[in-house]
Structures are given as C-alpha cells and as structure tokens.
Design brief:
heterodimer; A: mainly beta; 6-stranded mixed β-sheet; 5-stranded antiparallel β-sheet; 56% strand; globular; B: mainly beta; 10 strands
C-alpha cells in the first residue's frame, strides 16, 4: 500500500523555466511533509519541508505547496538550473515529530541546457 | 566526522550468507535510522534508534534482519541468510534529535547485491 505517491517517474524541463514536481498521499494523518533531492551514488539531502498548518513554504528558488483537502503537495523550482537535475523524493510523517518518514518512489528531474 | 559514513559502499554476497553493514553517524546526533531502497521503489523505513531507548524495529521485514547501536555512535545492520529480495541500497541517516523536522542527514548508502 503506497501511502505517498509520485506518479511521474521522470520530468524534463528547459533551463530557466519552472519545474513542478507532484506528490499525492492517502493517509490523512500525515501532518509534516518533506522533499529530498538525491544525486547518483549519494544519499538523499533535505531540500524543504512544510507542516500541515501551512499551505506554502518558500526557500529561495524552491517553494512547496500543500493542498490538504486534495491530499496533494507540489515542489516548484524556479528558475530551473542544470544542477537541479536529480531524483526528488517526497516524504511524509504523522504525529508531528514522529521519527519515521514514508517516502514516495521519486521523480527524476532532468534540466535541459 | 563531517557526515554520515557507511561501509562498505558496495557488497556482493551469495544467497544464504550473512552480511553486516556499518553506519557511523554524525557526532552528537542522538537519533539514527536505517532505510532501504529497492530498485524502482521509495525508501522503506527499517529501524530507528534514539539514545538509550529501546529501538523501534517495526520496519524490519523479517527476523533475518537485526540492528544494534552502541550508545550514540556506530550502528550495524545484520542480515542473516540473505535472499535475492534483500538486494537494495541500505541507507543510514542521523539527526540531532528525534523527528523529521530536525532534518535527517543520510549517508551514501551500501549497495547490497545478493547473487
């Protein structure tokens, strides 16, 4: 039972344009959401997070939007840069501060120069 | 150390053999987690250690899997009688305190291949 879903395994975006990565979840108990970025042969690195009391969180070029009623979140990267090419994982937890994260299967983002 | 260190980086083993994977967390990080990623899947929680508390083993897939941690330092994940379905990248992460809001730091992982 995949509780966190990333339905697009891959995405290609022109350099300078906006990249939008999507994530859906099924467990309404989830109250904290994170995005991780992973380069080949490296561990995932934390990118940005959002708690369920907010609907938007912004950090530089990265913005995460949360739509609780739709159980959907998205990561916007603008402008996209070649170094953004990586696999992006969406993750969620419940009982704010709970230790375990439930991850999606990832979306491979390729930025085309 | 500066980051989470895992060894070996790659391990090929024969089906039925035991393997031991090692994780050195960031100094001072009280929480330590093991995840694995099988091909085409997301990261799957295995086990969590916090200080001297009993570990949360709820993610271990079978009794062939076990893990230990010495105080707030090194952890080892042991897989006995390995099976082909154990092939995966095993990732260790540590954080300053429990909870994802503190941010995990992941190691580069151990790629385990069971042949």
């Amino acid at each position: 039972d995949q509780q966190v879903k990333q339905n697009s395994p891959s995405l290609s975006v022109q350099e300078g344009r906006i990249s939008i990565l999507n994530c859906d979840y099924t467990n309404s108990m989830f109250d904290y959401f994170l995005w991780y970025k992973k380069y080949p042969a490296e561990g995932p690195t934390f990118l940005i997070s959002i708690s369920s009391i907010k609907d938007k969180n912004e950090d530089g070029r990265f913005t995460v939007f949360l739509n609780k009623s739709a159980k959907h979140l998205s990561l916007h990267i603008v402008p996209s840069q070649p170094g953004d090419s990586a696999v992006y994982f969406c993750a969620a937890s419940y009982n704010f501060g709970n230790e375990k994260l439930t991850f999606g299967t990832g979306t491979r983002l390729t930025i085309i120069p | 150390g500066a980051g989470v260190s895992q060894s070996p980086s790659n391990k090929v083993t024969e089906k039925g053999k035991d393997v031991e994977l090692r994780c050195d967390p960031i100094s001072g990080h009280t929480a330590l987690y093991w995840y694995r990623q099988r091909l085409g899947q997301g990261l799957e929680f295995l086990i969590y250690f916090q200080g001297n508390s009993a570990p949360d083993k709820s993610g271990l897939p079978s009794d062939r899997f076990s893990a230990e941690r010495t105080g707030e330092s090194v952890s080892t994940l042991t897989i006995q009688r390995t099976q082909q379905e154990d092939s995966a990248v095993y990732l260790c992460a540590s954080s300053l305190a429990p909870g994802p809001n503190y941010g995990y730091t992941f190691g580069s992982g151990t790629r385990l291949t069971v042949v």
